[in-house]
Amino acid sequence: MKIIYAGTPEFAVPALAALIQSSHEVSLVLTQPDRPAGRGMKLKPSPVKTLALQHNIPVLQPETLKDEAVQARIAAEEADALVVAAYGLIIPTAVLNMPRHGCFNIHASLLPRWRGAAPIQRSLLAGDQETGVTIMEVVPALDAGAMIIRGVLPITDQDTAQSLHDGLADIGARLMLQAMNQLEQDGMLTAEPQDESLVTYAEKLQKAEAAINWNQSAEAISRQVRAFNPFPVAQSTLKGETCRIWMCRALPGSAAAGVIHSVDDGIIVGCGTGLLKIEELQLPGGKRLKARDFLAGNPLLPGERFGH
C-alpha cells in the first residue's frame, strides 16, 4: 500500500521505521517545521524527518495543513492510507478524506481513557495499573475516533514517563504495521466506537505541577517524580536551592513531611504518609547524580529538610 506518514518526535520514529522496512511504500512524510534547539538555538530537524531523509523519502513541513497548495500536494499522492503518530498539527477534514482507506492514529493510551496531550504522564500520576496503545481512526474531534486495535503495557513502580514512552512507541509500531497489513489484505478494518461515558482527558503538563508538596503521600510523590522524568522534572528546595528529583521510591514508615529521616542507602524523606527514598537528584549547575554520589559532595543530616 501507498502510505503517507505524519509524525514529529521520537515517539513516532519506531512506527515509521517499521513501515519503511515492510512491503508498504511510504511515499511522503509530513512533519513539523525545523525548530531552534540546543545552546546555539540552531534549526534542528525532527527525529521523523531525520529518518525519512536517511531513506530518501520526500518530506513536507508546512506550518498548517489548511493551505490549499499543501492540500494539493497531499492529494497528489493518491495514498491508500495516512498514518499519524504525535504529529502535532490539526488535520483538516479535507485532508482526512483524501486517502483511499482513511487515516489512522497511534495514540499512547487505552482509549477512551486519557484522550489529549499528555496521556503517558497522566496515567502515571493517576496511579493506573496499566497503559497501552490504541490504533484508532482519525476524526475531526480530539482522539474520538473508533478503535481498531489496542495493546496493553503494565505500569510498574519503577516506570518513568520515559520508560513508558519507549515501550509504547514500540507497541505502537508493531500494532500499526499489523493494522496496515490487515487493511491491505481485507481492504477494510473493523473498528469499535469509544464509550463516551468512560472518557478522561490528559491535560497538557504545566511546569507548576513539578513542585513537590511533601504533605502528599509518598506514593503520590513517587508517581509525580516518575511522571515528570524526563520533563519537566519534579523539584523541591534544599538549603535554599532548587533541587530536581529524578528518581525515587515510596517506603513504609513515617517522619515529618519534608524532613530527612536518614541518609544511608539513599535520602529518606518524610511525607504526608509514608517515606520517600530519593535515589537520583540534581542541584543547579550540577549533574544528575545517584544519591550516594550526591551525598559525597553535598552532605546531609537527619533533621534537615526539603521544601520551605
From TrEMBL:
Its EC number is 2.1.2.9. GO terms for molecular function: methionyl-tRNA formyltransferase activity. (6S)-5,6,7,8-tetrahydrofolate binds at S109, L110, L111, P112. InterPro entries: Fmt (IPR005794), Formyl_trans_C (IPR005793), Formyl_trans_C_sf (IPR037022), Formyl_transf_N (IPR002376), Formyl_transf_N_sf (IPR036477), Formyl_transferase-like_C_sf (IPR011034), Met-tRNA-FMT_C (IPR044135), Met-tRNA-FMT_N (IPR041711). It comes from the Bacteria. Residues 204-298 form the Formyl transferase C-terminal domain. Residues 1-179 form the Formyl transferase N-terminal domain. Belongs to the Fmt family. HAMAP family: Formyl_trans. NCBIfam families: fmt. This is Methionyl-tRNA formyltransferase. It comes from Methylobacillus rhizosphaerae. The gene is fmt.
